[in-house]
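Worked problem 6 (solution included).
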Amino acid sequence: MSKKEFVMVGQEGPDACCPGLLTAPLDEGQAETLAKVFKALGDPVRLRLLSMIASRAGGEVCVCDLTPVFALSQPTISHHLKLLKQAGLIDSERRGTWVYYRLLPQTTDRLATALTRPAGAPLPEAVPTETAS
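Solution. The predicted structure is:
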């Protein structure tokens, strides 16, 4: 896996990055962008970490509160947090010896937009396929 920072493209508006999956087909770049974020969310530990960070009162949580919840080593938890950060889902700030994490809601908002069908819009009808006789 690349060690490059993941950057969400087209941050001008909620639909600038990716159209809804049900409103238009994704182009290759949009699919790659979304896939990186979904890949980061595809691990149960990372999904739980994101949930813990997002649901914390005050909007941030210290790594010292995250690590004891899991039966994993501190370096493993740090690795998972790094992947979430590279995907643009969280950000962090060091304060003394501790690192505090917070959700980046613009990324989760873009995911929600991509997965949301416009209100009242019907699903595209399936085109019947012809069978060879």
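Discussion: Strands lie at 60-62, 90-95, 98-103.
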